[in-house]
Amino acid sequence: MIGNMFSIKSCANPDCRNYACTMADVCFDHMENQDEYLRKIKDFFASNKKISNIVLSGVVLSDIDLRSREFYGCQFYSCQFTKVDFRNTVFKLVFLDFSRFLECDFSTSNLNDSSFACTHIESSTFKDSEIKRCNFNGMTSVDSVFNDSDLYLSTFIATNQTRCDFVDCNLKRTSFARAKLDTVSFQYSNIEEAYFEGEQ
Ligand SMILES: [Zn+2]
User: Which of 54, 154, 170, 191 makes an SS bond possible with 22, Cβ 3.0 to 4.6 Å?
Assistant: First the structure.
């Protein structure tokens, strides 16, 4: 196991307010050798199925296969994920706040008690997944799909969503309060059990 949950270090650069990454003293922006760090972290992901208590701050990851990985108690703060394959993953208490996801695939995954607050999600899919008690508040999403998923008790408060689909989802106690929804489909979903108050 690397690091300990809830003992998150700050970046060693005195002018920086980001977290330090696991296996480093600084955030990704302040690393002298980002390529070497990426190699290290990719090796770590490749050789571990269960990944717990790691912190990535500002890390830029693309074209990696994270299928069937299980993430527990991780902080992936303000990271960028491009073409990352998250199919069949498990997330429990994973905080991805302020991260960006482009062309990522979370199909048939199991996301619980995790936070995607203030993320940007584009051309990505969360199809056929269990997404329970997750926080997507403040998310901006474009051309993304949550179809055939169970979104029980998840919140999409004050999100800004364009061309996104929530077709045939369980929306029991799912909140879209104050969401700005442009061309968003809820066909075949139980919208009467969701909260939409204050929708703009
Ligand atoms: Zn820093």
Answer: 54
